[in-house]
Fold this protein.
Amino acid sequence: MNHSIAKLSALVLVFALVVGLAAGCGGDSDSDASTPTKAEFIRQADALCEQADAKQEKDLQSYASKSSKDFSSQAVQENVITVVGMPPIQEQAEKIGKLEVPDGDEDEVRAIVDGIEAAVAKVEADPLSMTREGDSPFTEADKLARTYGLKACADSA
């Protein structure tokens, strides 16, 4: 029984690192004939990010319930980060990139999406980069998102 608690604690730690350090996102865009306002875009993008966070949490719980692995192992942590943590973030970036963008904000939004995708690529190359305090691959993308006005998509602080 204590092994189960230790396993769950290790999973929660890995999940917290993934969600806490990544700009988590995911969801659907509303197709509208008119260009959205910045406030409308922010609402849509943040909703996508909240959906990605929820998907990560659900997937982590599912992974934990089906696995008997030692979650303190570096190999298992790498697997959880790449298999559970990154796919919702990549999907979120793709969905944000497909949203209708307010006129004049195209470059800012493209930089945010490119930053998220670059961070995902860095994590896929070095999954444990997500566990290094103060050295998140998502720092720049989060900064761009926060500066633009996004909240749920810039939650690594």
